[in-house]
Design brief:
Chain lengths: 212, 151
């Protein structure tokens, strides 16, 4: 589904291309099929569940504030009930005591539902290789996107959310639970480690977090 | 005698009612079939922040709350009468003064009555409980022990 908006100050100018008849027509008409339209709607309204475990939640909450503004990606509507939420962000250390609670909340979310594992503790237990911490939240529930960091900056969390958006846009999900094929076909998530490797290897100095 | 011209006015109402019923049932039926479903152990449970639900939401309150609420309603309405008399005190004259005087006297009598029967007492009656406690002690223990504790 291809679409774009016109410029605010110059609504008639060509956003791209040469303002041909065909392109002008494409501005007004969008052709799509049902599946990709639903996927487009889903990926632009991922409502997060108001849920946090530890320090990572502070960074996640910061991503909603005006500086980072997750509302740009349609994910600003924090839901207090798992029935209304689409995305659960495991932001923080998953203690063994908390694991059944997280599992129960995940089960109470209505499909379609997605999970972002945020921070080293949720990804792998992090530095807590001890008796009281689950060694990665994916030990007991599915995870769609892993965000590394200890804690990840809001920028990193937003990057994870953008990756999840891309995934949601390309997913194949049944439109109903009665007719047709059931089950979800998820695209293979990209390995950001491989994708960013050459760029990261070029880095000779680490920038301060105050400058972007 | 009904006029014949009135009868055709009924069918738009029927069509309207049919449209409402079909729209609502259509929305309910379509949304029942749309979307995905999953059935896991906790899916249908009540949401209590991830904690297992305990007890019931149907709490039993002491009957005193009901009595206090009734007294509030009664005396609040009666004060409305007194205040509405007070703002028209001159035009109501001596007749109004006599009437409201009788009314306030009745109110005072009712207040004294409900106070005397103990309707304003809230919570357990400590004096009655202690009395019952010591009378029970007297039947089970020697007299000198009870005297030391009770007096």
């Amino acid at each position: 589904m291809k679409w774009w908006t016109s410029k605010v100050n110059d609504p008639t100018a060509a956003v791209k291309g040469n303002s041909s008849f065909e392109e002008t027509f494409q501005k007004s008409i969008t052709l799509t099929n049902m599946e990709s339209m639903v996927a487009w709607g889903r990926k632009n309204s991922i409502w997060p569940f108001n849920f946090g475990l530890s320090c990572c939640y502070v960074e996640m909450a910061t991503s909603i504030t005006s500086k980072y503004d997750s509302a740009r990606f349609g994910a600003e509507v924090i839901r207090g009930s798992p029935r209304e939420a689409d995305m659960m962000i495991i932001a923080g250390t998953v203690f063994i005591k908390m694991a059944p609670v997280i599992k129960r909340l995940y089960e109470q979310m209505m499909a379609p539902r997605w999970v972002i594992s945020m921070g080293s503790c949720a990804n792998s237990g992090g530095m807590y290789d001890i008796y009281s911490v689950v060694q990665g939240v994916d030990k007991f529930m599915p995870v769609d996107v892993y965000v590394p960091g200890c804690p990840p900056r809001p920028d990193a969390f937003l990057e994870g959310m953008l990756l999840l958006r891309d995934q949601i846009g390309n997913e194949k999900r049944p439109l109903n639970w009665v007719i047709g094929d059931q089950g979800v076909i998820k695209p293979q998530g990209p390995s950001m480690k491989d994708a960013m490797r050459t760029e990261r290897m070029k880095m000779t100095e680490i920038r301060q977090p105050d400058e972007v | 005698m009904r006029h014949h011209a009135d009868i055709p006015l009924l069918w738009p109402f029927l069509v309207y009612g049919l449209a409402v019923v079909s729209l609502v049932s259509g929305i309910l039926i379509i949304s029942w079939f749309l979307g995905e479903r999953h059935e896991e152990p906790a899916t249908a449970q009540a949401y209590e922040g991830g904690i297992i639900v305990t007890g019931t939401a149907r709490l039993r309150f002491p009957v005193h709350f009901y009595i206090v609420a009734m007294f509030f309603v009664i005396f609040d309405v009666e004060s409305a009468f007194v205040i509405s008399w007070a703002i028209s005190i001159r035009s109501a004259g001596w007749a109004g003064y006599t009437a409201i005087g009788l009314f306030i006297m009745t109110l005072s009598a009712v207040t004294i009555y409900i106070w005397r029967i103990g309707a304003l007492n809230f919570g357990p009656d400590a004096a009655r409980l202690l009395k019952a406690y010591f009378s029970q002690l007297k039947t089970t223990m020697p007299d000198e022990v009870v005297d030391k504790q009770g007096q």
